[in-house]
Structure formats: structure tokens, C-alpha cells
Amino acid sequence: MNPSRKSIKSQSSLELLITLAFGLVILLPIVVLAFIQISNSSSTLSATEAQATAQKLAGVASTVAAQGQPAKQLVLVQIPQSVTHIYIGTTAGTIGHEIIFVVNTNAGPSYVTAYTPLNVSGSISADINPGVYLVNVSAQNSCPNYPALPCAYIATT
């Protein structure tokens, strides 16, 4: 084999290798940015789903509490990914006017809140996993933890 022919093959192999390396250098940041965007979209989707679920629970709780005891309603709710806590009433677990979902996002925990004009109390499952849950919303003349106050009591079945 001719030595000049061998050097031509080596040169073309080196040129191909350099071209591929430049392609990878350009492509790598694009792939990283795509993964970051997908992660941000996932966090936004979880927060939006949590807001819809909180609003649904708040609406049912308001309706049931306005009707008074013995009104109750079973509602099917979707708990989205990344929800770490659900507070009914206040974050301290006392009677209040809010349903609060804590969603873990890239920027840290995000509090998604729905307001109810009437008192609410209760709890939703201690170990929160994503999925569909059947929740019982019932009107109480006296809340279990606060006997002097009427409320809508929310609890998983």
C-alpha cells in the first residue's frame, strides 16, 4: 500500500472525528436546555393540577357547609405528582378558610391555595401519593377539634 494513500485515510478520519466533536459540542447545550424546559413544564403542570384540585375541594366544601348538617358529599380528586403536603384549614392544622397544597418545584416548595368563605377542617391521607382519591366532605355543627364552630370537615374515605 502506498504511504500517501495511508496518510489520506488518516487525514479523512481525523477530519470526520473533528466534525463529530464540533457537532456534539453544539448539540450538548441544546439537549441540556431541553431537559431543563421539560423539568420546568412538569413543575408547572403539577402546580396547575394542584390548583384545580384545591378549587374543586373548596367549591364542594362551601356548598356542603352552606347547606348545614347533615349534608355530605363524596368527591373524586386527583392528587398530582410533586405534592408533599395537603393542609385543610391552616398550615398549623387548625380550623380556617383555606385548602393548601404544597407542591415541590425546582425553585423549592410552592404553596397552592384555594379560599373557602366558610370554615373548613380535616385531613387528607398522611402519606400522599399521586393518584385518585375519594374524599368525604361533610357539614358539621361542631368541628371535631373545635366544638364551638360549625365547619365543613374534609377527610379521605
Structure, explained:
- With 157 residues, the protein is an alpha+beta fold.
- It has one domain.
- 41% of the residues lie in helices and 36% in strands.
- It contains one helix and six strands.
- The protein has one helix at 3-67; strands at residues 72-79, 83-89, 96-105, 108-123, 131-140, 151-156.
- A six-stranded mixed sheet has the order 1-5-6-4-3-2.
- Strand 2 and strand 3 form a beta hairpin.
- The longest helix has 65 residues, at 3-67.
- The radius of gyration is 28 Å and the shape is rod-shaped.
- The model has no long low-confidence stretch (mean pLDDT 85).
Strand content: 35-45%
- Helix and strand element order: HEEEEEE
Structural class: alpha+beta
Cα shape: rod-shaped
Q: Count the strands?
A: 6
Q: Describe the biggest sheet? A: 6 strands, mixed
Provide mean pLDDT, rounded: 85
Q: Counting H and I runs of at least 4 residues, what is the number of helices?
A: 1
End-to-end distance, in Å? 82 Å
Question: Into which percent range does the helicity of residues fall?
Answer: 40-55%
Global Rg: 28 Å
Number of domains: 1
Low-confidence stretches: none
Question: Strands across the major sheet, in which order?
Answer: 1-5-6-4-3-2
Key terms for this structure?
about 160 residues, alpha+beta, about 35% strand, 6 strands, six-stranded mixed beta sheet
